[in-house]
Structures are given as structure tokens and as C-alpha cells.
Model the fold of this input.
Amino acid sequence: MNNSKKDLWIRHEYEKIKLSSDLFDKMDCWDNLELIKSLHYSRLDILLKMEATLHFHPATLRKLAKEATEMEYKLQEAWGFPRDSSKHYWSDSPHCNCFYKTVSDNCIIHGFVDKGYLFIDMHESV
Ligand SMILES: [Zn+2]
Done:
């Protein structure tokens, strides 16, 4: 087994993520390895900040969630996937109480649609 066949791990304080070497082969994106790693670290840094943000600062949480979403789009581009918000993992964000990609009205990050915050702004805009 050569080195490139080993799965790669992103080891971050927030979460450990395994990157599949098969997917790098399949997508032919080994050239983007460092970029993909750094985007993952940036995203995990943001999630860690969200976790440390107090629940009564929804504006900060939404801003960070938007940055994390932007990282997910950049990751999709780096892997060679189309930009697709339906593939994002936003519902596992800290302080989010949406249930598996179904927006909960009382989620302080994705809910509050009636208070002028539109979910679609975060997830569908380019
Ligand atoms: Zn939510």
C-alpha cells in the first residue's frame, strides 16, 4: 500500500474528519489536497467558535454559520463537486436545533424567519 492510498485525517479540537483517498482518486483532486485540508481546518475553527459563543448572541452565531456555509461551498469546489447546499452539514452546527436538514422555527441560527432572517439567504445565495 503506498502512501497516497492511506486515508487522511483532519485532527482538530472540534472534530476528527477522515478524508477518503478513494474519493481523491475518483475526483482526481490530489492537487487540491492542501487546499481541502486548510478549508476543513477553517470550517472546524468556525464551528469551535460557534460552540464557544453563548446562546444569547444569535447574530454572532448566524454570522459564523454563514462563514461555515461559505467554507462548505469552497470545499465542494475544491473537490470538484457542484455547489449544492443540500449536501451541507449545517444541521449539526453548535446551538442549531434543526432536525436533520429540517429547519426548526425556534432555531436561533436558522429559524426566526418571521423576524426578518431568511433561511434562504444563507443557504441558497451564491
Ligand atoms: Zn438550525
Q: What stands out?
A: DSSP finds four helices and two strands in the chain. Strands lie at 8-11, 16-19. Residues 3-88 form one domain. Helices lie at 21-27, 33-52, 58-79, 119-123.
